[in-house]
């Protein structure tokens, strides 16, 4: 049964806030307790496997969400998806063992690879269950699926941190245990709450057709997955491990600032899919336009707050390790936030309409811009070069989406421009004021909201329209 947008928003917000809070706690304990070299090595290893398994997913999670939202058979889709995860994941891990035999010296320098890979393999096996819950718009169940893993990681890493025993050798097994718990929770909750058993063992013809449906999305996944962590991987190759530690800390803060996007993004795809199925014109839909403008307001507010609190807060809680050294990197990454929000919004519109070839071309373009930018800018500007390359690639992709809209033209750049300028002007108050830091955040936010009202990015009628969206 279709749930309201409000119920989905509430459940997804709770699950993301809980998971993000615990994840940030784990990240902080590791960044504070490990040396920069070990912290950088751990993040490089995680980046390798997160990229690899995202590539192996073939984008089937998005296909599953769309198919379930369209009312297709859930047990059959679950069985096909899990079969793919099992076969692809086990073949990949077998290839990893072959590489160990062929290149033992490389693995002796990166000893965490095999164990971290085992944990991420188990996590990969859990993706069909989470995709099923997302497609069914059961975001509370998604919370239950993932909360065990975040609790285990935060509890165990927290104990090691406060006992002053935290090390790479002890942290990695904790990650594996947490990943295994997420697989078990996903399996049990799918049976008990979602009431979706596995169908019969998939036949080769059914699996072939399933993968064939994903082919238009496959190219997108290949390039988008590589795009997501290529900067981390290349920093690990070009620069010392401590530089990746600094960049990963700044990037994690950037990801935390994008939490509202993580809340709203999973809701947009089934919502837009329903609107398209009903024959609605998204470009002329008032609720869709309001959602876009609200995203721009939130994105620029998050960017403003991140820059205002960064230096005094981060240096105080990390003992000066990651604050001032990352000021310029964080500023560049924060400029990406509103562009990233608009990018995701336009991607969802195109995906809901099935414009997979266009999406594929956009990711190919963005990928090559990002790789070229990283290869050129990391040796020259180090971490700031990686951040600038990411900003450039996301901007190019967004311009591409805007340029190739057809009958449902969504005008997103005016809100992006006005909200960004309002945030930038408000940030100037922080940069050139001599007031104490405790007063700066509320003053900057108040000025930002005032400027939004002046530029009509916030309107009196917005709340009534938004309430109608929540009831949808």
UniProtKB/TrEMBL annotation:
The keyword Mitochondrion does not apply. Its main location: membrane. It holds the Pfam family Polysacc_synt. The keyword Ribosomal protein does not apply. InterPro entries: Poly_Biosynth_Transport, Polysacc_synth. It is found in: Cell membrane. It is a multi-pass membrane protein. Keywords: Cell membrane, Membrane, Transmembrane, Transmembrane helix. The chain crosses the membrane at residues 12-30, 42-64, 76-103, 109-129, 141-162, 168-189, 210-229, 249-269, 290-310, 330-347, 359-381, 387-404, 411-430, 436-458. GO terms for cellular component: plasma membrane. This is Oligosaccharide flippase family protein. It comes from Flavisolibacter ginsenosidimutans. The lineage of its organism: Bacteria, Pseudomonadati, Bacteroidota, Chitinophagia, Chitinophagales.
